[in-house]
């Protein structure tokens, strides 16, 4: 029988190595590749996991797979998209952790389970809610072809990866918003320059003209600016 102190030391060592893995991923991987790398690493660490994927849904109508190891997570997300039900969606929408020990006997999502069994060899699943902002929610999901493979350790380590995946997702969103803001600023600057040259007005008057066009047409300012630029350069 193992000594409790030895088990505790071993556990601490595992968590330390896991923390080092996640730290290295953040330092060495570009933001756009972090979710893929994190998902790959999670499969190696979570006991029982053979595949993993991240499901993202917006307004309960648009479901996509943000990261996946292998084809089965993609197939299972497609089944959820078709039936509007499934454990990954429930984990995301209900902010909970869901464990399925055997799809063949689980009756919570009958249509999903039937198609999952028919189209894949997956029998066990473990799903963690990730985030819920900007009208988007998501789940980190682990899959196995065996039954009864996920235990309390799987849940504990899965939660660690779910926490880091949520942080990565938020980091990517901020990066996308920053790049979008820079692109909008550039296109607005181009449009202002064109209006200044065309109408012999200063920068303040050019921006005010764009703003008034945006308000009157109820079209975002960046889109109005893009229309001005493309009107001068129709080949773009």
UniProtKB/TrEMBL annotation:
Source organism of the structure: Mycobacterium branderi
Gene3D superfamilies registered for this protein in UniProt: 3.30.450.40, Winged helix-like DNA-binding domain superfamily/Winged helix DNA-binding domain
Pfam families: ANTAR, GAF_2
Keyword Transcription included in the entry's annotation: yes
Domain ANTAR as annotated: residue spans: 168-229
Superkingdom per UniProt: Bacteria
Name this protein carries in UniProt: Transcriptional regulator
Keywords, alphabetical: Kinase, Plasmid, Transcription, Transcription regulation, Transferase
